[in-house]
Structure formats: C-alpha cells, structure tokens
Amino acid sequence: MAYEFELHEPIAGAAQRILGEQVDRATAHLTSNAEPAEKRVHNARKRFKEIRALLRLVAPSLGGQFVVENRFFRDVARDLAATRDADAVIETVAKLRAAGDTPALKRLERALRLRRKSVETADLQASVANAVAQLPLVMGRVMNWPPIPERFSTIGDGLEKIYRQGRDGFARAAGDPTAENYHEWRKRVKDHWYHVQLLRRVWPPMMKAWEGVLEQLSATLGDHHDLDVLRALIPDVATETDRAAIIEIIDVRRLVIEQLANDFGTRLYSETPAAWRARMRSWWKAWRNESPSTS
After folding, report:
1. Would you tell me the crossing angle of helices 103-117 and 81-99 to the nearest 10 degrees?
2. Domain total for the chain?
3. Nearest-5° angle of CA 267, CA 272, CA 278?
C-alpha cells in the first residue's frame, strides 16, 4: 500500500502499517543486488526519513516511545550517510559545471572522485549488514506501542508543530542566512512534505498541488545544503590557486537558491499554524465522513 492514510483506517493501524511497509521497503533496498550500493543506501535512507516524519506526526500519543523509535531510525540512517555525502558533493560540482564550466571546477571534480574512492567499501557493507539485522526488531516494539486515540488531535498536534517549526525556521533562515539555519529549515520542510503525502487523500487535488510545491522547495533546500557541504570541503580538496574562484561560484549559486527558497517560503507559510491546523481538521473531518464509494 502507499505512504498515506486510507479512508476509515484507524489512525493507530495506519501508523503501524505505514511504518512496517517502509521498514520492508528499506530492507528490500539494502538487500537488493539490482542497483549499485550507493543508490540502494540512498533509497533506504529516504524510507527512514519518511518513517521519522510519520513518528513526528503521532509523537504526542507515543510519549517516550517516540524518543526510542526516532533515535533508532536516526542512528541507522546516520551510519549509512558517509557514501551518500561523498556522492552528493560530486553531483553538486556536476551541476555547477553544467551551469558554467571552468578549469577549476574540472580539477575539483577530479579531486572529489579520488576522495570518493577512499570511502571504505567494507565500512559501508558493515553498516548495511547492521541495519538489515536491526530492522526486524522494530516491529516487535511497534505492535506494543501505547494506545493511539482515534481523534484528529492525534495527528493535528504533530501537523501544527511541524508547520510552526518550519515557519519559524524560514523566518530564521531569511533573517540570518547561515548554513545551519537553512539546514534546520530544510529538515522541517521535508517533514511537512511527508505529512502532506500521508494526508494526500483528504482532498487530492489540493494536497497534490501543495505536495508538488513542497517537493520543489525540499529539492531547492537540498541543493543549498549540498553547496554548504561542498564549500566546507574546499580547503581540503581544492588547490590553493583554485579555492577563491570556486568559493565565489558556490556563493553566487547559493544566493540564487536562497532567493528561490525564500519566495517559496513566503507563500507556503503565509498561514498561521492555528489556521493550517483548522484547515486540515475541516478537510480531515469531511474526508473521514465520506462513504467508501465516494472516496
């Protein structure tokens, strides 16, 4: 089934089902031989992010169990991050070269590819094996979660909190455009995007459009983060004569991305958190009152 709530499906059952399906998908990614290891790890980490967003949606009802589950999936994803980060900076340089190639960028990409080869394959294999061994243990805990009430506030609190955090994160990033502020905003944007996906059935035409804009903003902020990661590496991977030129290219591109992201943020966060929650509550109630034949 899809990463979304189904009509007339109890909230508790939906949360457990969706988490279990994402665990199964992550396991399938990690154990498949159909794609390169880096691609499989990237896909598995996306499933873990979706799970953590789901957990944040119902966090108030989970109490201390939220901390246990969130930490577990955070740590598993973190163990798998090194290879993905090494690939991401290479992709970032490729994008910069596509926009305007220079000899300095060519040399930088060569240096990053040599650096990528130093990422220990054995370490990646050990991290994958550890994740595959740990994931089956999750469902035993999930089936013993505390009761999750069947009312809108069960998800409404999480929806409002993440929207508020994203709105506040946007204000901080726009007012003080540091790498850390944009990265923190990005994390809450992704959570909000996943929440919209989970609730896409409450009103598909409206939610699909909202989801599409959030996907664009998430990708834009992802590019910003990758530029920041690349910029931090420049002293270690670029020659002394190339550093200033490369940093200037990165900073110019960074400013363009920030303006685009801020334009998205101004529109996406124009509502107050209370208004967003009220709107979603009315759509949720209308949807849950539908008959199966009209859904």
Report:
1. 160
2. 1
3. 110
* Contact (Cβ atoms closer than 8 angstroms) between residue 116 and residue 85: no
The residue among 43, 2, 50, 16 whose CA lies nearest residue 138 is 16
Whether 77 is in a domain gets the answer: yes
Predicted TM-score (pTM) of the model is: 0.93
CA dist., res. 265 & res. 273, Å (int): 14
- How many Å apart are CA 130 and CA 80, to the nearest integer? 10
How many angstroms separate the CA atoms of 184 and 169, rounded? 7
Domain hosting residue 240, numbered range: 11-294
Query: Within 13 Å of residue 226, how many CA atoms lie on the same side as its CB?
Result: 21
Tally Cβ neighbours within 10 Å of residue 208: 12
Instruction: Report the CATH number at residue 268.
Output: 1.40.20.10
pLDDT per position as a tens digit, 108-137: 999 998 887 766 565 778 888 999 999 999
Q: Give the pLDDT score at 188.
A: 97
Q: Measured in Å, how far apart are the chain's first and last C-alpha atoms?
A: 16
Residue 1 within any structural domain of the chain: no
